[in-house]
Structure formats: structure tokens, C-alpha cells
Predict the 3D structure of the following.
Amino acid sequence: MTLTTKHFGVDIPVIGFGTWKLKDETAQMCVAKAIEAGYRMIDTAQAYENEKHVGRGIRDAQLPREDLWVTTKVWMSEFKQGDLQASIDQSLDRMGLDQLDLVLLHWPNRDVPLEETLDALNDAHAKGMTKHIGVSNFTTSQMADAVKLSKAPIITNQVEYHPFIDQTPVLEAAHSLGMSITAFSPLAQGKVFDEPVLKEIGEKYGKSAAQVAVRWFAQQPGIITIPRSSSPDHLAANNDIHDFELTPQEMGRITSLKANNQRLIDPSWAPNWDNAA
Ligand SMILES: NC(=O)c1ccc[n+]([C@@H]2O[C@H](COP(=O)([O-])OP(=O)(O)OC[C@H]3O[C@@H](n4cnc5c(N)ncnc54)[C@H](OP(=O)(O)O)[C@@H]3O)[C@@H](O)[C@H]2O)c1
């Protein structure tokens, strides 16, 4: 079953497979296994240095191309006019694809005007290199600027989002702009597994804390989530969330864990994050 969320008339699968840190044959095998297990979105990036093997995994799975959503992200060094389009061409080449479904700007880059980068991204979109465009790690004001400067809709902002971080400002901003949010590090890079509330709710349904977390994302409107695993068993389990439903009270209990407000990904080039009130 492929759950989707609609933004700007586009149906986007809500569960994708993350591939950061998966390399070479592991990336290839896991991508093929993920597609076999029912994932219909694959998330990679130029910076992950695995686009070639991700492309091989996609071919191994032999799914009709139109049934799979493939996202990559352009690294910040490629944000100038011309460089950006050339880098997407190289991504397509490495992956052995004619077109991407979604290309994201991986991080905001203070050194290149956003207008120039978005003109280049819109040009890549107009040339058919990607069906859709979006951003990642953008703050609320950067999201608003991107929307103003772009001809094509900015369909998502991919940001860190798991039960332990308070992302209320970006979630509200995305909602009011009609955009989706793609939740990265949705399992808090493993931290969800020992969380007592998630474990307790999981016991009721015969599910793991990770499955409860993925289900919590799937029941939030406008949210896409992209858990990663290097294990075929884990990745299949993470997508096995279609046979139970969290009650509003359980959803609320998990949402209230955001009071921890723990950010895991905060490199030196990060923007000034929005603080939850
Ligand atoms: N845009 C950005 O700047 C950005 C930043 C970070 C991440 N991302 C994207 O988001 C994706 C997901 O985030 P993430 O990779 O940081 O971490 P994550 O998905 O939150 O967690 C991955 C970790 O959880 C473990 N795991 C997964 N399922 C499990 C299960 N069922 N049982 C036990 N352990 C399990 C994995 O170990 P095993 O391999 O052993 O299963 C791995 O160590 C990335 O792969 C990437 O595509 C984007």
C-alpha cells in the first residue's frame, strides 16, 4: 500500500527509504530490498557518494520507473548558475536515470544569492531534469523567500524531525505555504528504540518503537518520512506499519516528547534555526 500526501496537485509517497551512510554494494542491495519491501521513494544526495549504487539498486528491483519516486540533493558547492544544472546532469548520469522526481537544495548557502540558485534549479526543472523541486534545512524565513523567488512550486522542505525535536515553527510555515515537510533522521538515528512511551504503545499493537514512530509520521498530514537501515529485516519492518492505527491520545503522547527538543544534525554551516515558542 502506498500512502501519499498531495501538494500542488502532486501525490508524494509518505514513506521513503533514506540512504545516507549506505555505500557501494550495501547501498545497491538495500535499495533493491527496500523497493521489494514496498517503499516507493528513495532518498539520496550528491554528498552521500552512493548515487551510482543507488541507481544500480533501482535497476535491480525492476519496478517500472513511473512507479518509483527518486529524490537527490545538490550539494552547496554547486549552487551557482550553470554549476547546479551540470551537477544534476552528473547525478542523472551516475544513477542511470533520464529524470529525477525531486531535486532538493541540500542546505542553504549564504555565499550564493538564493535567487541565482533558484533560477538555476527552475531552469533544471524547465529542462525536464527533475519533475519537482524543493529545499532542505531551510528556516521559516528562507522557506518564504524560496517560495517567492521560485516559478515552480517548492513542494517540500526536508528537515530533521523525530519525536524528540520541536519543529512547530517549520511545520506551521510549511502548512501555510501548502508545502510538505520531509522528516529526516526520523528514528533519531536509533534513539527512538529505547523510548519508554514508544515501547509501551508498541507493545499494545505488537510493534517496535521504530514502527510506532513511522506510524506517528504517517498519521500526520503533509509529512513524509525517510528512515534508513542497512538491514533488509529492519527496513522491511520499518515499512510494516499499515495494519494498525494510533489513537489521537497516543499521537498526542508521542508528540509531547518534543519537549526534549534535541537536535542531532547541527553542522557549522547550519542556518540560525527557528526556535519553538
Ligand atoms: N537533508 C539532510 O541534511 C539529511 C540529514 C540527515 C539524514 N537525511 C536523510 O534521512 C535519512 C534517515 O536519517 P538517518 O540516516 O540520519 O537516520 P535514521 O533513519 O533516523 O536512523 C537510522 C539508524 O537506525 C537504525 N535502524 C533503522 N531501523 C531499525 C530497526 N528496525 N531496528 C533497529 N535499528 C534500526 C539503523 O541501523 P541499521 O542499519 O543497523 O538498521 C541506523 O543506525 C538519511 O538516510 C538521509 O536519506 C537527510
